[in-house]
Structure formats: structure tokens, C-alpha cells
Amino acid sequence: MIRLALPKGRNLEIALAGFRAAGIGLAGLELGDRRLRLALPDEGLEVLLLKDWDVPLYVEYGIADCGVVGSDVLEEVDGDLLIPGRFRDGHCRMSLIGDEGAMPRPGDQIRLASKYPRIARKVLADRPWSADILKLSGSIELAPLLNLAEVALDIVQTGRTLRDNGLVELEVVRQIQPCLVVNRSAYQLHRAELNRWIDRFEAAEVVE
Asked: Is the pLDDT of residue 104 over 90?
């Protein structure tokens, strides 16, 4: 039996649609399901429903054999995982955001708010300005609105929240998408079945 970790957040809909398009039905699992653990013996699966940020840890430590998680989380946690596919749907972007004209000038020293401090450090390494990084866990847009930080680094999907609050995207720094991740030992154990999954995903043009 394969244990699959799926995210409860914005990527669950993408994951369910992708698996079902590939003929892996996950029967009995629906959006909004509040169960944490679901056995699907007819499909040889057990599903764990986790917070997006917890999926890489469960997979890396072998609690789950594989999972689906956003590339933003993967880059931030920097786990030792196989990534055999990236889903075509569910793209969004990671951007520097702030007030119009708030992009720092060369030599400026500012404050930057984000829940992605590791990625923020990478971004700063390529910029002619520097920043103190303030780690927040939510409502990142409030930081520039209330002058906690001059700019923020966060995920943008439609941009509506920014527009509603008078903020703009200053620069897109990453394209983000959900990824299929696999534990290295689990891949050796379940190689044949996981390769069949990947073939189905590719045939259904679910992953790239």
C-alpha cells in the first residue's frame, strides 16, 4: 500500500483533479474533507491530509511515500526529495509587493516581511539593495500597509487582494506550481507502481 500526503490548502483541488485525470480516482475523498487519514484499499492507497508546509517533512521522513506540495514550500524547506513531476495547473507567482514606487534603490537598507526567509535571502543575494528580513506567518500584506516593512515577499494568485488594499507587484521573483514529491527509499520499494503513476500523469498531460 502506498501512503500519499495531500495538502489541505489551495493545492488540494489541483491534486485531486490531476490524479483523477490520470485514472487514480481517490474515491471517497472530496474537497473540504475534514478527515486526517483515509484508507482506500481498493486503490492500494492511504491518504493523509496535511498542512502544505508539513507535506515535505512527512515524505522526507518516510511517514508518507509521496505527496503533493507547492514549489514555494519545497524551496523554503529544502528537503531531500525526488520531484518526478510538476503539475501544469495551479500556477501562481511569488512577488515583491508594496506601495507603487516602493522598489528599493541601489544601496538602500530596508525591512522585508515574508513567511519565506530562506527564499528571501536568495532574492536579496541578487539585488543591489539589502534588507532585514521579518518572518511573519500570515497577513503578509499588512506589513507594507502598516509600515512594519517597506516591501513584502509573498504568493500572488489573482492580485485582487493587492488591488483591494492599494498595493502592487513590484517584481515577480518566482513562478510557483504544485509538485509531485517522492521519498527516495519509497521510490525503490514502490518503483513499478510509482512509475505507472508518472506515466499516467504524463499521458494525461497533467504534469510537465
From this structure: yes
